[in-house]
Amino acid sequence: MNKPEQKLFPKFSYPKKTVNFILTFAFGLSMALGFAKLISFTSSASGKHTIIRDLPVYLEWLNGTNTLYLSLVLAGALGGLLYSILLDGELELPSWSKKNPNNLNPGFLAEIFVGISGAFIAYSVLPQELKQPGEQGLEITIFVTGLVGGYGGKAILDAALEKVMERIKTANLDKEKAESQSKELEEKIHIRNLVNQQIQNGLNQSELSEMQEKLEGATDDVKKIVFNVAHDARSLGRRTLTFKDRVNRTIPIFEALVASDNNNPSYNAELGYAYISSQPADLDKAISYLDRAIELRVPGASTERDSWKYEMNRAIARIGLGNSQSRDDILKDLFAVEQRKGLAQAIDEYERDGVDGGNNSIKNWLIQNQDWVSQQTNGKALLDEIQISEPAKPVTSTSAVTENQEDLVAAPPKTAKPVTSTSAVTENQEDLVAAPPNTKIKATIKTYLKKQPIDSSELGENEKKEVPAGKGYKVLKYSEEIDGHCLVELDYGAGTWYIWSDHWHLPWQKSSKDNGRSSVSAPESSQHQGVNLVTRQQAESVYGRKMSDQQFNDLNSCLQRFEINTVPRIRHFLSQTAHESGGLRWMEEIASGSAYEGRRDLGNTSPGDGRKYKGAGVIQLTGRHNYQKFADFIKDQKVMQGHSYVAQVYPFTSAGFWWKNNNMNALCDRGATVREVTKRVNGGYNGLADRQRYYDKACQVIKQLPSTPLHTEELAAQPETGKAATESSDQVSKVEVVREMPKILTPKDVDWSDMSTHLTPHFTLGENLRNDPRRIPHDTTLQNNILTIMRELEKIRTDYGKPIIITSGYRPEQINRAVGGVSNSQHIRGTAVDICPAHGDVFEFQKWVDQHWYGALGWGAKKGFVHIDCRNGKGWKTGGEKGVRWNY
Questions:
Q1: Among 79, 199, 472, 510, which is disulfide-ready with 442 (CB 3.0 to 4.6 Å)?
Q2: Which residues neighbour 392 within 8 Å (Cβ) at sequence distance 6 or greater?
Q3: Tally of CA atoms within 13 A in the half-sphere of 724 that contains its CB
Q4: Where are the domains of the chain?
Q5: Would you say the C-alpha torsion 167, 171, 176, 177 has a positive or negative sign?
Q6: pLDDT digits (tens, 9 = 90+) for 540-578
């Protein structure tokens, strides 16, 4: 076994204090004596009185040493050593540095020399009287002075060094603190940049992970800033069309904040709100985070003031899920809101702010469940506070319920699956009918062939094909127009596409001038020149805010210029612009516009374009490209001065420009609902409840237009004969003019292939069939049913004395299925029509028809129509028991 190698000279270890002192003192004494001898050679004080003669024991070479210097050197060295011994309890030997072998650590030598220096300095300040040679006790005085000086010198030096080191340490700490603050500031800026980029444009996956990681480790003040930024973005995105896509992009931010502090109720609540407003909404997740926020809520905390919104939004989410088993939980939430805020006040606040589903969903739920709610403790008081009327009497007849079910339409699921281009086209190809030989369609403006029946801006490049104005195609098959789109199969292998019918000349859709009137066409704007289409009182009543003269004049100019000149068009235009502008509070975008910098898709190619051309007007015109198009259209290049000019001069005209370019009038003319118009304006349904509220208000105050001559289409629908033809236009609007025509008694009296055939004095076959050859009935029973309902409708028209529009008539099973009708609809039997007044208030019209119609009736005024049918064999003013009634 190998023994460890033993060194001849073991490594020196620090000796005990006594040995250490003896060794170091001896070595220091030798050096001190040598130093005293050395400096004596240069001293002028050497003489017979100062030469040491009484110390024969001293070595020969010390003879002649100046006793003054010797005493000072010895005393100073001893003083320096004593200071270190008394203070530290040990002396440090000289040694070479371990870190750097070239550096010498002087150890106690430094203390000796510092002590000597202190001794000489102390002697130099000694009074002259104490320095006289020959004085008794001079040597003791000198030695004591040197000892004190050496000790004090070392103490002073240590104190000075300590101060210097303290300052160095303080400076280092300040430097470290400054560097830390600088680094922290850089980190804050980096996090904020990541958050802003995520909100504005979105981050890629790696950047998103980095942002979430940094947020989880960020300081509280950084989190607070980020939370406020994300909150504002979510709130603005929920209210504003331009920023609706930002709501979804705030979700990862709130998720990171929750991950960093899962016990923060505000973080959890905001994440829940974001899931409710996202597209598509994730209501289950919203509820789970709102549950957590409510659990964490601290009574009396500063955040508790608005915490009633936790229950309010949770109730909205639960209503959205449509789970009937949740009604106890929903009612508990509403009672909590009532206790913390007051439910009526909360609904009003949500209504003003346009919170998704707020007023509408909660009120509708209470109406639908008012029987049950009124039976609960304090339920009746809750209903009374928000002015819910008494519960309607339930329908007790089993047959009535059974008959009513056929008109129920399946509600869409809470989260619609995206329609792929292949399935969208394939599923509807069965509804295509063969086109007559050599049928051609032609684009009237630049447009698109599309793989899905949605706005072209929402489609990818591989899902649409641009078509220039004037381009034509030969058509093999085509479909019924649904929500403005037709499906066409083109010849020569060009494929099957959706087209927006208003952009094309379609031979199978004859105009109302040729085939009766399936809808009232837009009157020429010249008909209303010089006439305000809405009064100041009407406009201010809808918007809920006083208007300046410039705003009021621009509104009416806009309505005339862009032919927004029928009651439905005006109602929808006012309600949509009221929501988008927050009731005329925002004439231009709140944000700075910096988010649009460099957006080439908006034409912002120069520095500053984003801010200059940010959103302006009641439907925000955004981007240099759109500003230029509007300036060219309006022939006012001052528009290019930027957002302030547009907001002040053209707040409504700029919105009308968008309205016209997106074919909104045609959509309104087809009897579109608020939901359908909102989808076109918003791209989704953000703020639907608020838009519906504004629309309901518009329906209350705008019931007819200023007195004007009848539209040319109306005159065509009721041709003049005899004396009526010579009456003035004012008289024509008051005179009932009826076409002279043979009386139709049986289906054999009708040419069912001619859409212009009048089934009654006021209604053509084309109006019932929507001028669609596919709807022509070939069964005698169907033909008799159509004639029966049309005769009853003629009675309504005669008593009403004003034009009535048929929005839906006979629908074969194939078409009924394509438009989403139920399988046993009365429209399939030909016994039903959906109608609305051309110019009156549809709600008043519905109320009037309901009084005298003894057949079945569906209340669809909220959707723009009234459904009537003869399923029970009864009709207009027939008397007896009325048929079933139901809501759409």
A1: 472
A2: none
A3: 13
A4: 17-169, 202-385, 421-505, 525-701, 740-887
A5: positive
A6: 999 998 999 889 999 999 998 998 988 999 999 999 999
Q: How far apart are CA 152 and CA 87, in angstroms?
A: 12
Distance separating alpha carbons of residues 296 and 273, to the nearest angstrom: 16
CA dihedral 511, 514, 520, 523 (to 10 degrees): 90
Q: Which residues have C-beta within 8 Å of that of residue 640, sequence separation ≥ 6?
A: 624, 627, 628, 631
Task: Give φ, ψ of 63 to 5 degrees.
Answer: -60, 130
Give CA–CA dist 741/750, Å, rounded. Answer: 12
DSSP 837: E
Whole-angstrom Cα distance, residue 105 to residue 454?
Answer: 85
Please give the pLDDT value at position 86.
64
Residue 7 has pLDDT above 80, yes or no: no
Whether the bond between 436 and the residue before it is cis, its omega within 30 degrees of 0, is no
Going by the DSSP 8-state scheme, the letter that residue 51 receives in this structure is S
Q: Residue 519 corresponds to which tokens in the numbers above?
A: 């809808």
**Cβ(487)–Cβ(425) under 8 Å?**
yes
Whether residue 442 contacts residue 474, with contact meaning beta carbons closer than 8 Å, is answered with no
Strands 472-478, 464-467: pairing is unpaired
* Longest CA span, the chain: 166
Q: Do the domains spanning 525-701 and 740-887 agree at the CATH topology level?
A: no
Angstrom distances, CA of residue 887 to CA of 365, 374, 390, 404, 487: 14, 21, 17, 10, 31
The pLDDT value given to residue 216: 80
Q: What number of helices (H) and strands (E) belong to the chain?
A: 34, 15
End-to-end CA distance of the chain: 102
Distance CA 30, CA 38 (A): 12
pLDDT exceeds 80 at position 239? no
**Distance separating alpha carbons of residues 6 and 554, to the nearest angstrom:** 106
Beta strands in 765-883 (DSSP E): 804-808, 832-837, 856-860, 865-869
- CATH number, span 525-701: 1.10.530.10
How far is Cα 233 from Cα 610, in angstroms, rounded to an integer?
Answer: 18
Bridge partner list, 495: 490
Q: Which of 67-71, 522-526, 732-736 has the highest mean pLDDT?
A: 67-71
Q: Which CATH class is domain 421-505?
A: mainly beta
Entry pTM? 0.34
Higher pLDDT, 259 or 142: 259
pLDDT tens-digit profile of 865-883?
899 999 888 999 988 889 9
Residue entry with tokens 């980029």: 197
**What average pLDDT score do residues 426-443 get?**
72
DSSP structure class, residue 718: S
| CATH T-level topology, domain 202-385 | 1.25.40
- Whether domain 740-887 has CATH 3.40.50.300: the reply is no
Q: Are 499 and 453 in contact (CB under 8 A)?
A: no
| CA–CA–CA angle 615, 620, 625 (5° rounding) | 65
